[in-house]
């Protein structure tokens, strides 16, 4: 997985515009997604959000990639996941440009 700079692409008239596209790499189809972290995940990642390039097709696969990279101590089964502001199942498909949020359990009293 690689952190990316913002890429631009051109509309049909050739005018550059911001956007996210899936790109073919030697290792297969990869896409950019925006990931946000809260609470202990933010502390372990060292940032509140990041744009990543991934070959993951589901939030579960993406979390496992990020868990290996950042050393997250929380297993996926204890988290909630939202994609584009909606809670989703861990096996839901991911698309280029999705906004993914991993939400850890919150303690309180």
Briefly summarize what is shown.
The chain is of the alpha+beta class and 109 residues long. It has helices at 39-45, 59-70; strands at residues 2-3, 8-10, 16-18, 23-25, 28-37, 49-54, 80-83, 86-87, 99-103.
Helical percentage = 10-25%
Poorly predicted spans: 1-9, 18-27
Average pLDDT, rounded to a whole number, is 82
Number of strands: 9
State the helix count: 2
Bin the strand percentage. 25-35%
Q: Given the helix and strand composition, which structural class is it? A: alpha+beta
Characterize the overall form: globular
Order of helices and strands: EEEEEHEHEEE
Alpha-carbon distance between the termini? 38 Å
So what's the oligomer here? Answer: single chain
Largest sheet: 7 strands, mixed
Rounded Rg: 15 Å
Describe this structure in words.
The protein has helices at 39-45, 59-70; strands spanning 2-3, 8-10, 16-18, 23-25, 28-37, 49-54, 80-83, 86-87, 99-103. It has 109 residues and is an alpha+beta fold. Strands 1, 4, 5, 6, 7, 8 and 9 form a seven-stranded mixed beta sheet that branches. Strand 7 (80-83) and strand 8 form a beta hairpin. It is globular, with a radius of gyration of 15 Å. Mean pLDDT is 82; it is low at 1-9 and 18-27.
Map the helices and strands:
Elements: E1 2-3, E2 8-10, E3 16-18, E4 23-25, E5 28-37, H1 39-45, E6 49-54, H2 59-70, E7 80-83, E8 86-87, E9 99-103
Parallel strand pairs: 5-9
Antiparallel strand pairs: 1-6, 2-3, 4-5, 5-6, 7-8, 7-9
């Amino acid at each position: 997985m690689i952190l990316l700079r913002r890429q631009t692409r051109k509309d049909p008239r050739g005018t550059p515009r911001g956007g996210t596209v899936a790109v073919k790499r030697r290792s297969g189809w990869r896409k950019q997604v925006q990931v946000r972290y809260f609470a202990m995940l933010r502390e372990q990642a060292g940032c509140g959000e990041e744009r990543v390039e991934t070959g993951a097709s589901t939030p579960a696969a993406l979390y496992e990639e990020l868990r290996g990279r950042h050393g997250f101590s929380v297993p996926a089964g204890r988290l909630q996941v939202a994609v584009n502001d909606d809670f989703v199942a861990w096996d839901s498909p991911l698309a280029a440009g999705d906004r993914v949020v991993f939400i850890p359990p919150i303690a309180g009293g």
